[in-house]
TrEMBL record:
Keyword Transferase: yes
Residues annotated as transmembrane: none
The entry's keywords: Transferase
Cited InterPro entries: Glyco_trans_1 (IPR001296), Glyco_trans_2-like (IPR001173), Glyco_trans_4-like_N (IPR028098), Glycosyltransferase_grp1 (IPR050194), Nucleotide-diphossugar_trans (IPR029044)
Superkingdom: Bacteria
Keyword field contains Transferase: yes
SUPFAM superfamilies on file: Nucleotide-diphospho-sugar transferases, UDP-Glycosyltransferase/glycogen phosphorylase
Residues annotated as domain Glycosyltransferase 2-like: 10-175
GO-annotated molecular function: hexosyltransferase activity
Gene source species: Cupriavidus necator
Name listed for the protein in its UniProt record: Glycosyltransferase
Glycosyltransferase subfamily 4-like N-terminal domain location: 351-534
Residue ranges of every copy of the Glycosyl transferase family domain listed in the record: 552-718
Amino acid sequence: MTGSSLPAFSIVINTLNRANSLAQTLESLCWLKYRGQFEVIVVNGPSTDHSQEIVESWGDRIRWARCPVANLSVSRNIGIAMAAGDIVAFIDDDGIPEPEWLEQIAAAYDDPNVGAVGGLVFDHTGYEFQYKYCVVDRYGEADLDVTGPTPHLCFPKSFHFPHLLGTNCTFRRQALLEIQGFDEEFEYYLDETDVCARLIDLGYFVRQLPNAYVHHKFAPSNLRGTNRVAKYRYPIIKNRIYFSLKHAREYEPLDRILENQTRFVTKHRDEVRWCVGEGLLKEADVEQFELDAERAIETGLRRGFEGPRDVLTEDKLSRFEGAFKPFDPIVIADPKTIVLVSRDYPPGHGGGIATFTRDLASALGKLGHIVHVITQSPDINRVDFEAGVWVHRIVPTTRQLSGAVRTQGMPEHIWNWSASALAEARRIAGHRRIDAVEAPIWDCEGIAFLLDGEFPLVTSLHTTLGFWLQSHPEKTADAQWMQDFGTPMLKLEARLLLEADAIRANSQAIVLDIERQYEIRLPEDRLQVIPHGLGPSQAGQETASARVNGHSHGKTVLFVGRLEHRKGIDVLLEAIPTVLDTFPGTRFRIIGDNTQIAGDGKTYQEQFAASRAAALHVGAVSFEGRLDDHAVHQAYAECDLFVAPSRYESFGLIFLEAMREGKAVIGCAAGGMPEVIEDKVTGLLVRPGDVRALTEALLAMLGSDEMRSAMGKAARERFATRFTAARMGNESQRLYALAASRHKAGRA
């Protein structure tokens, strides 16, 4: 007991060879929102992977012990013995609880006769339920078709009784002590079912909740492969036989119990053979099954007639007992639920909006808020917990166009995505109140939210369609394209700018440019300028000698971005020959989508490859296409100088990525770039489209190690003081409060 009016919890994680999923489960506990206290206990079985390293990395924040055998009930009894809380909560080492888990469980222990409580369990997708409600009989047969809790079956000797799934089951510790904990015959399967039966027979209630969600990710185990098909069925068969002999003999004659056991074995035999036919198991698995089944039947019958032998003893209690160790979760006085909508999101997508969304989400999560990201899935709907963020990857579906939407002339695919995201937000709102939604101006991702009006909406300013058209005059000249897409989208952008509850601007420049481009005035009382920020560096520690692949005697200049006119790649490629003539050892790395046609039917890469400069400087310029995040981060860390002569950037995250690594940068005096780059301090600014000015800047930088070093140091300092994700997340809290206030006032 901790002295609090709320019960103290001991969360017990029993683990065996699941280091990676264990790490994620432990991390997820940092976001539990419980007004009382809880401790975390890990009981590590005879693991041969790096599970123990994961456990010990948490230091004294958690308590832990070793279990010498691969037996879940033995491990759970050790956890009970260690537990010092009022309630022992078991969660699997591949389970992720939602933030309200303990709060909702605690409310169900309002009656001292309640001995066990459990909630709902999502499967690995996060969309479908692995478990909602279940009733089990004294044979051990489960009925998963029940549609709600079954408190009427909670009476001693009830043949059918409510069941809790092992990955989301909690017990009053005193009740567990009264029944001497888990029966250690159950090394796996029916272990918690046996506990529920014995608690009910002792007069306790088992409560099944309609919430208290846990997401079960189904990590592989020694019993189950990556395809989740059980290969080793010995404990399943043995424990089913043992369970029925232990619990059914008061109700049924022995011959009927044995007949039930035979049907159970036959069912598993048929399932194994079916799996072989489907290619899920091999023929050798059939032979092994028969050997395992024969041994399981013999052992289950013998142990069943002998009765229980190993339980939670006084010796185990005294050996493992310890003082309550309160866990320190991420606590904030008034946590908010923030939903970020971004069709693009790492790791499958790069780009400015994807990077911004990831770093903002992570920063808000570290502050203690509950953060959901709704992004597009390439395959199925699923929810994953990643670095403190609930990431909802959804497949957009066709959504009916309302009359209001039709009159806007909205492109169907734009509406389908935004409306699908809205539907997912409503699903989230079924678990907790949403305090604000943020979506980018690009592709009008928040338009369904604006038209619906249910949630406070923040529109974040990035490059707009209006800006994009400035560098794609061929689209403006296409009357049909403008009629079908361009003009309707420009109108929708203007509506979002004028009607969203709040506006995030990443720079002062983008505010002025948008007002000029769209001939509107953004309301100052709804606008906040919050410069973008990035998380910590993710680059590795490769040596400088390895970074240039044979060009260690020269300098490496890096460009990252789409190879298109707006990014100024044509200007850079025109400047490169002079630079290489002056500094022959220089290497240029060009990273980014290189499929954009330059205007003569060729890409910029193809144009350069056909040039005289390419022939004279073979290997000096490498076009590397799109790379994964790790490779791009490494490229920033390994370069000597970063250059991106964009004709326009609303902000310029690419410069922050270089500055974070302590690199001097070259950009253009356009858009938000001057607000990121301090000219002649952290880098150089040149006129957009000016080949001569860019060439001179490159020559000056490459010709002075002292200048690059000083500017690189200043760039890192400027990043650390002004452009971190932590600062961005902290300042964003005011933005969401503004949106909520404006939304409330608008609905009053």
